[in-house]
Amino acid sequence: MKNLFTILFFVVTLFPTYPQVTIHVPGDQPTIQAGIDAAQNGDMVLVDDGTYLENINFKGKAITVASNFIMNGDTSHRNNTIIDGSQPTHPDSGSVVYFISGEDTTSVLYGFTITGGTGTVSFVGAPRLGRVGGGIFIADVGAKISHNYIFNNSVADSFAVIGGGLAAGSPWSNSFVIIENNIFDSNSCLRSVAASEGGGMSISTKARVCNNIFSNNVVSSDSGEAFGGGFVALFNLDSVLIYNNLIINNKVETGIITDPIMDRALGGGFVLWNDSTTFIRMIGNVIAYNKVSSSNYTVGAGGYFELTKGDVIFANNLLYGNHYSGSVSCYGSALSMRKAKVSIINNTITGNEPSINGTLSIDLDDSSLVMNNILWGNSAGTNQPEIYVRAGNSPDIVYCDVEGGWTGLGNIDTDPLFLDTLFHLSDSSPCIGAGKDSILIGGVWYYAPPFDFEGDPRPNPAGSNPDIGADEDSLDSPVYVEKYESLIPVEYALHQNFPNPFNPSTTIEFSLPAPGFVTLSIFNVLGEKVATLVSEELTAGSYKYKWDATEVTSGIYFYRIQAGSFVETKKMTLLK
C-alpha cells in the first residue's frame, strides 16, 4: 500500500567538490558584486555588516554569498547586513538579487536583509509587459535562498506584476529551488490592469518552501485578478513541498470592477494553481488572519486551490482568524478548493469569518477525501453550514468534527474543547481517539499523517486511533477535567503560549513534576533578553504566567524555561 506522506520526490542535489576560497567583502573586494565576479565555483563570498546599495547577479556560479550569520547564527548579522536595491543602474532591472544564468541549488544566498527592490520588466503574459521579482528574481534556474529577511520590496506596473518579495520560475520551468527559513515581510504587488499575484513570493517551479510570511499584500486598483497575498505556487508545477510556514496577516484587495467574473480577489494567504500531473504536499502550516477584500467575487480568505490534475495532500494545517470583507460573496473564508482532487486530512479550521457561502468550499472530484478535520466556530453567514459542497460533487467527508453536523462515517458534532489558540486538545476533548488512521475508498488507501502539527507521533499512544484535528493528544481516550487537574504532572513540560499570535498579552503554561528553582525568560530574535517572568523556587504543579508585550515591537520572540536539567525554548509571534 502506498503511504501518501512519504516524501520522495525532491531532487537530491549532488554537490560537486570544489576547493573553497573565502572572499571577504569589503576586505578583499569593495562590493558584493565584485566578490561574486572574483569567485570561482565552490567559493564563499562573506560579507561584513553594513548597507550595500547594489543589485547583484550570481552569473551562473555555484557559490555561497553570505553574511557573517553563516558563521555563528547571530541574527544581528542578518539584520545589519543589508542589500538595498533601490538604486539600480537601469529602472527596468530593479530586482535586488538575480539568478538568471543556469544556477542550481549550489548557488546560495544566506543571511541578508533584502530590501528596496522594484522588480524586473519581463514578458509575463505576452504580448504585454509586466514586472516580476521585487526582491529576488530567479528565472528558469535553481537557487537556495536561506535565512534572509526579505522586507519592503514592491513590484508595481500598469500591467501584470508577480512576486513582490521573490519570483521563481515560469510556467515552463523544470528547475528546483529551496526557499527555507526566510522572513517575507511587507512586500507588495501593485497594479492597475491584468493579473497581480504573490505579494510575498511567486513560485512556478519545483520547490521546497518553509518560511515566515507576514503582512504582504496584493492590490489591484482596476480590473483583473488579484491573488495570493502571502504567496502563489502556480501553473505547471511538478513537485512542491510547502511545510511549517507561518502565513499570517497577508491581504488581497481589488478596486474598480469591470468584469463580474474575472475581476476577483483570490487567496488572502496563499494560492495553489496547477494544470499538470503533480505531487504537492502542504503540511504543518499556520494560516491565520489573512484577508480578501473586494466589492465583487472573492474566494478563499485563508487559501485557494485550483488544481485540475495531480496528487495533492493538505494535512496538519491550522487555519484561523482569516476573513473576508466586501459586499458580494466569498466562497471559503478559511479555504476554497475548486476543480481539485485533494486529500484534506487532520487539519484544524476554526474562527474564520464571514462567508456567505460556507467556510470550507469544496469543489472536488468524487474520489477526494476530507478526513480527521475539525471545522468548528467559523462564521459562515445565516444558516450556512461549516462545509459547502458545490452542485454535482460528492466528496467523502469522514471522521470529522463538524459544527452543525455532517452525514458521513465517523463524523461528530461536539465542541472540540481547545486548550489554547494553537488549538491543542484538552484532555477531555471528544476529538481524542475519534479519528481514523487509514481508509480504503474507491480502491485507494488514504492515511493519517504519521506525525501531528508539532512533530509528535500520530497516533499517540501507538495502537490507539488518531485524534481529529492537527494536534495529537498523548491520551488514547478523553478523561474528565476534574480528575486530570487533581494530578501532579508526571513530566516536565513547556506548553505553547496562548494566544499565539497575540496582541498585546499572552499566557505561558508549564508543568513541574518536582520542586526546584525555575527561570522563565523572553528573548527577541537578536537573542536579547526582554523580560523575566519567573526566577524563584517553585513546588511541583502546573503554572500559568502572563506576559504583557505592550512595550515591545511586533515580531518573533522566544520563551525559555530552565528547571534543574530541564531546558526548553518555544517560539511565539506578536502582531500589533
What class would the helix/strand composition place it in?
mainly beta
Helix content: under 10%
Shape: globular
- H/I helix tally: 4
Calculate the terminal CA-CA distance, rounded to whole Å. 48 Å
Rg (C-alpha, Å): 24 Å
Low-confidence stretches: 1-17, 481-486
In terms of DSSP E residues, the strand content is 35-45%
pLDDT averaged over residues? 84
Major beta-sheet overview: 23 strands, parallel
Question: How would you describe what is shown here?
Answer:
It is built from four helices and 58 strands. With about 575 residues, it is mainly β. The strands form seven sheets. It has a 23-stranded parallel beta sheet that branches. A hairpin with a 2-residue loop joins strand 57 and strand 58. The longest helix has 7 residues.
